[in-house]
TrEMBL record:
Cofactors (names): pyridoxal 5'-phosphate
Name recorded for this polypeptide: Aspartate aminotransferase family protein
Top-level division of the source organism's lineage: Bacteria
Key words, A-Z: Aminotransferase, Pyridoxal phosphate, Transferase
PANTHER family associated with the record: ADENOSYLMETHIONINE-8-AMINO-7-OXONONANOATE AMINOTRANSFERASE, BETA-ALANINE--PYRUVATE AMINOTRANSFERASE
Pfam family, one: Aminotran_3
Lineage: Bacteria, Pseudomonadati, Pseudomonadota, Betaproteobacteria, Burkholderiales
Entry keyword Transferase: yes
InterPro entries: Aminotrans_3 (IPR005814), Aminotrans_3_PPA_site (IPR049704), PyrdxlP-dep_Trfase (IPR015424), PyrdxlP-dep_Trfase_major (IPR015421), PyrdxlP-dep_Trfase_small (IPR015422)
Provenance organism: Herbaspirillum rhizosphaerae
Family named by the database record: Belongs to the class-III pyridoxal-phosphate-dependent aminotransferase family.
Keyword Cell membrane: no
GO molecular function, one term: transaminase activity
């Protein structure tokens, strides 16, 4: 048991995406983690229903990752990423490429999901320019999309509250597709909802407005996570792909949460059988152990740069691109995915997980439940005049009762480590049901 920190100990850390004053008045502190559980500072186990922030597919303190990172830090703690290489960075890129079934040919490393998104946007612009298509500078995002907090990602993102403070400092020339969430038509669906495929055709409207010759790329999350588990309608992503191809627009998937097994396949593009031109990842890439993101590109993207003028092909990169510790964690994670049959396990429990989520139907205030792969969204009705308050109350109570859930607005998002077993699913949904029964 750890000594509780006093309120003055808490003041220096300005916490991200947190109501700091509220948190510091009654902090929740995690001090260790192993397998499916965190422990708080009073020593209580907390079942991880969210894989940290969607980033721990293999469970916590995986011994193979721990020892790979320990070995790496003692061997090569850091290597400059510009003009110098180290073997693990190349080895990981090759393994990642193989993990896509060799459909993608190169990997560009970043330090986070936000950096991966901004990198993908920059690659898209540079790709068109190098091919003589320099007018293609516009991006199309989607309402309710979340693409991290860089200026690029925030601009293509579609969350009004995140954008409003930054107003005209956001990227110019960005437009948004409508989101696909429709409670009236699609409530309580398992997998892809039936209604809403036609919303992909809104891209035609934006093309008519801006002209294809001015549009660089469309970026979407295959399944939007941060804004409350929005699952694409059947055929929607295929239609987007067709329209992008028709108009010479690049399609970028932001797979920061869907990458590395969340849907029981290596990537969401495998699950939906739709291939973007480039896609972003982070989080599960290193099992959350060392920060790392990556952009995967198809051969035609990389070839365009290699056929361009000699010299540095892309004037872009980070001090921590391909950090040795992150590469070690990434390689060990891939080993575990492959050797321990993680995807097969996720596939084998996902139906049980989804059924358990849908068993909450009928409990007070539950207005929708939507599930896909190892993701569940449970939407609660809002308390009039207090949006988000009901789900936040559920979150606080859940923590006290020993389960970690994530809430966004009045939506509970669950995305446990893929190594979850049925007994954990029973614990997670049993406790959540008890909480929902007694919420105001
Ligand atoms: N894209 C998506 C789809 C995400 O879900 C997130 C993070 N939740 C990001 C980008 C940003 O990643 P990071 O927080 O690592 O910058």
């Amino acid at each position: 048991m750890n000594k509780p920190l006093s309120s003055s100990d808490l003041s220096a850390y300005w916490m991200p995406y947190t109501a700091n004053r509220n948190f510091k008045a009654s902090p929740r502190m995690l001090v260790s983690a192993e397998g499916m559980y965190y422990r708080d500072d009073a020593g209580n186990p907390i079942l991880d229903g969210t894989a940290g922030l969607w980033c721990v597919p293999l469970g916590h303190a995986q011994p193979k990752i721990v020892s790979a990172v320990q070995k790496a830090v003692a061997t090569l703690d850091y290597a400059p990423s510009f003009q110098l290489g180290h073997p693990m960075a190349f080895e990981l890129a090759e393994r990642l490429k193989q993990y896509t079934g060799n459909r993608f040919s190169q990997v560009f490393y970043t330090g986070s999901g936000s950096e991966a998104v901004d990198t993908a946007l920059k690659i898209a612009l540079a790709y068109h320019r190098i091919r003589g298509d320099a007018t293609r500078t516009r991006f199309i995002g989607r309402e309710r999309g979340y693409h991290g907090v860089g200026f690029g990602g925030m601009s293509v993102g579609g969350i009004g509250t995140n954008r409003k403070t930054f107003n005209s400092a956001l990227l110019q020339g960005v437009d948004h597709l409508p989101h696909t969430h429709n409670l009236e038509k699609n409530a309580f669906t398992k997998g892809e909802p039936e209604y809403g495929t036609h919303l992909a055709d809104e891209l035609e409207r934006l093309v008519a407005l801006h002209d294809a010759s001015n549009i660089a790329a469309v970026i979407v999350e295959p399944v939007a996570g941060s804004t409350g588990v929005l699952i694409p309608p059947k055929g929607y992503l295929k239609r987007l792909r067709e329209l992008c191809t028709k108009h010479g627009i690049l399609l970028i998937f932001d797979e920061v949460i869907t990458g590395f097994g969340r849907l029981g396949t290596p990537f969401a593009s495998d699950y939906f059988d739709v291939e973007p031109d480039l896609f972003t990842t982070a989080k599960g890439l290193t099992n959350g152990v060392v920060p790392m993101g990556a952009v995967f590109v198809k051969p035609h993207i990389h070839d365009a740069f290699m056929q361009g003028p000699d010299g540095i092909e892309l004037l872009h990169g980070y001090t921590y691109s391909g950090h040795p510790l992150a590469c070690a964690a990434g390689l060990a994670s891939l080993d575990i995915f492959e050797q321990d049959g993680i995807l097969e396990h996720a596939q084998s429990v996902s139906d049980y997980f989804q059924e358990a989520a849908h068993s909450l139907r009928g409990l007070p205030n539950v207005i929708d439940i939507r599930t896909i792969g190892m993701i569940a969204g449970i939407e609660l009705s809002s308390i009039p005049g207090k949006p988000g308050a009901r789900a936040y109350d559920a979150f606080r109570r859940a923590f006290n009762d020993g389960i970690l859930i994530r809430v966004t607005g009045d939506i509970i998002a669950l995305s446990p480590p893929l190594v979850i077993e049925k007994k954990h699913i029973d614990e997670l949904f049993g406790k959540l049901a008890a909480i929902l029964k007694t919420l105001d």
